[in-house]
Design brief:
The protein has about 350 residues and is α+β, with helices and mostly antiparallel strands. It has a domain at about 1-60 and about 315-340: Orthogonal Bundle (Hypothetical Oxidoreductase Yiak, Chain: A, domain 1), CATH 1.10.1530. It is built from eleven helices and eleven strands.
Length: about 350
């Protein structure tokens, strides 16, 4: 185990991605995002992803020379084409454009097509909160979950994210800058990583987590990995599958990206260019109740939530871990360090 500063970790990750064929801007944007995830304790989306991305770059599943471009704009709506590159530069451009449009029109939606794995979705929305606005994010991914009542994977785990700015402690009226409320969740019953850990440790999994390749419920995590994940609430209702369908339409049919079942898994080295999508909606509170009123009401809500002992605001744990990592660095395993060197 080795402790790295965030700057050192970012430089190592960017160098590894550059060696694999990513352009400088793509490598640096991706490295920053992965290190940010690692610093927040989200190692499943952190430095361990460098090897996966590098393999996709080398195998042609990602175009390392791609530069995202704005390809369509109509009033407060726009589309960014990632051109088969890694998702992070394209998502950054989309969010920047959405903030600009929302400042002009009050609300904006910007989608990303021909994209790749988006990492921690809510982190893309940080500039939205910094601008004092509300952000919503949606992304699809290669098929891992069936439709309601179905047996074969169609939808990805399709994360949904939201960010809400808060008033900075001691700040004046209308001034945001406090730690925002940050919500980020996938729509599968559990993360696929839990199956990977259970398989590694030789443990079974509860019924209701996954189906095997034949579409039957399974307690074998290895069988679940080759089968499909179940949506949230799948045991008692179709709500999770319906939400996954909503996200799939928003980021694919509406934006012009591939559906999850058209994309090869991220967890295989060979396969097609996924061409999946993301979509970001940005809302300026000034266009509705007003920024002062919005910030006031958020604090009323937070105060009421915190009346109960044990309540943790969404994003608070991540913020604390990030603060500690900025001061003390992050601990990186020898296997991850070796993969970065390779």
């Amino acid at each position: 185990m080795t402790t790295l500063t965030l700057t050192d970790a970012t430089a190592r990750a960017a160098a590894a991605l550059s060696r694999a064929g990513a352009g400088q801007a793509m490598a640096e944007a991706t490295a920053r995002a992965l290190v940010l995830a690692e610093a927040q304790g989200l190692s499943s989306h952190g430095l361990g992803r460098v090897a996966q991305y590098a393999t996709h770059l080398r195998n042609g599943r990602v175009d390392g020379a791609a530069l995202p471009t704005l390809v369509a704009t109509k009033s407060a709506a726009a589309v960014v084409d990632a051109h088969d590159g890694l998702a992070f530069p394209a998502c950054a451009l989309a969010v920047e454009e959405a903030v600009r449009l929302a400042a002009q029109y009050g609300v904006a939606i910007v989608g990303v097509c021909n994209s790749h794995h988006a990492g921690v979705l809510v982190d893309h929305l940080r500039p939205v909160a910094a601008a004092g606005m509300v952000g919503l994010g949606f992304a699809n991914s290669p098929a891992a979950m069936p439709a309601a009542g179905g047996r074969h994977p169609i939808f990805g785990t399709n994360p949904v994210a939201a960010i809400f700015p808060r008033r900075r402690a001691g700040g004046s009226a209308g001034e945001s800058g406090g730690e925002p409320l940050m919500i980020d969740l996938s729509l599968s019953e559990v993360a696929r990583g839990k199956l990977m850990v259970a398989a590694r440790d030789g443990r079974s999994i509860p019924l209701g987590w996954a189906l095997d390749a034949a579409g039957e419920p399974t307690t074998d995590p290895a069988a679940g990995m080759t089968g499909s994940m179940l949506p949230i609430g799948a045991v008692t209702s179709a709500k999770g599958a319906m939400l996954a369908l909503v996200v799939e339409v928003l980021v694919s049919a509406l934006v012009g990206a591939s559906f999850g079942f058209e994309a090869s898994s991220f967890f295989v080295d060979e396969g097609n260019r996924p061409k999946i999508g993301q979509a970001f909606i940005v809302i300026d509170p000034a266009a509705l109740a007003g920024r002062d009123a919005f910030l006031d009401r958020i604090e009323v809500l937070v105060t009421e939530m915190m009346r109960d002992e044990g309540v943790r605001l969404p994003g608070a744990r991540r913020a604390a871990l990030l603060c500690a990592a900025e001061a003390n660095g992050i601990v990186v395993g020898s296997d991850v360090l070796a993969s970065l060197a390779r």
